[in-house]
Amino acid sequence: MADQIRAVSLNCWGLKYVSKDRHERIAAIASALARSDYDIIALQEIWVEADYNQIRQSVAPRLPYAKLFHSGALGAGLAILTKWPIISTSMTPYSLTGEPTDVFGGDWFVGKGAGSTTIMHPVLGQVQLFVTHFCAKGGEEGPEYNRTYRLVNAWEFAKVTRQAAEMGRYVIALGDFNSIPTSLQMNVILKHTGLVDSWAASHTHIPPPSGMLSPIEGVVSYGVTADSPLNSYRDSAPSSSPIVRKYQGKRLDYILFRHPIPSATNNHLPRLTCRDSQVVFTDSIPGNSCSYSDHFGVEATLFIDTQADAEDDMASLKDASAAWSDTPSELSPSTITEMMGALNISYRISLQRSRKELTIFGSSILLLIAFIIGSAWVILPWLNPVFVLFVIYLSWLATTKLYEGFIFGNWERKALQNVIEELELYETALATQPPRY
């Protein structure tokens, strides 16, 4: 239907050799999507190209246009499939995506970023779709600097989506933001871009929980998509997270939208609103007891109204969402201060860590020299293999610490410094001139 857009976002948990029941789950996801009536599908963690091709082929009769985004050593794991023609694509890698020694975290090895496709919609014209997956490390509790990488992801994502709106395009952004709705990261995204959270827009009268929720209430009323007891891949042990205990999980997956920045030539545009959004893929896959993924999906139906009167339309929507407001959409001074504080602390921690790692590098080199020289005086033959193993270990340790302390450390601090300087300039601009919109 031309008067609405149905969109879905799903983290497929498709890591090769790591994700449990991957083949069965991907087949079930492909089958479910083939039976659906979505106009836009956004996928995350779809790292195996054969899995992507399986899903793409299953939905091709309805969604013939698709893009798998390539980035990083193992790929971005991001894909968009759509009903309407794609006229351009781009991939914006995030400057900070994890630490190289955090092997189990995995963020460093994949190309975390924002994938984008611009489609030609028959009513709205150019619509820029974004799909993203933020860094997972940091949790939700504790000091904000624990989530610095995710905060940098949010700032860089906000910049590219805001730019799309400034170019006169509708924007729909989907993905796994690894951030709860009240987090600083989501505050940065929504305030800097004017994007509207489709779930919040369609669930405006849900009060905060006053007692213990059931897992079903957490999903239906509060949009829980991760860490739900209803998911077969959740750890059976009680969670230590207050947020998980309060809501029976976390809402980490979003569908966001907004209209183009109003101008003299486009001040009366079709209205885009969300009246329906829900969590999906909550059941077990047919014939099996496992869930479709370790995340549930989220869907939204965006309605297009081309008949509303321009002045009445704007006035009625200013209180409801920034998607149609021509009032300023900028970060508050308190948000900027909180961001700057977290980034500056992370910068100092990075500097201290680099010094420690370079000290380990220097000590490893000295020990390496000592072992090499000492091997000349080894009398017992069985000690030679031990010396060789120690030399191999020290060589690896020295190389790793040199890379971590010097190359990666400098890279990390330069990325942090770039964002800090951008925020300083942004704060100065807000203090000296009115916001643009």
From TrEMBL:
It is found in: Membrane. It is a multi-pass membrane protein. GO terms for biological process: sphingolipid metabolic process. Keywords: Hydrolase, Lipid metabolism, Magnesium, Membrane, Metal-binding, Sphingolipid metabolism, Transmembrane, Transmembrane helix. Residues 9-295 form the Endonuclease/exonuclease/phosphatase domain. Pfam families: Exo_endo_phos. One of its GO terms (cellular component) is membrane. The chain crosses the membrane at residues 358-380, 386-403. InterPro entries: Endo/exonu/phosph_ase_sf, Endo/exonuclease/phosphatase, Sph/SMPD2-like. The keyword Secreted does not apply. Pathway: Sphingolipid metabolism; Lipid metabolism; sphingolipid metabolism. The keyword NADP does not apply. Its main location: membrane. GO terms for molecular function: metal ion binding; sphingomyelin phosphodiesterase activity. Belongs to the neutral sphingomyelinase family. This is Endonuclease/exonuclease/phosphatase domain-containing protein. It comes from Rhizopogon vesiculosus.
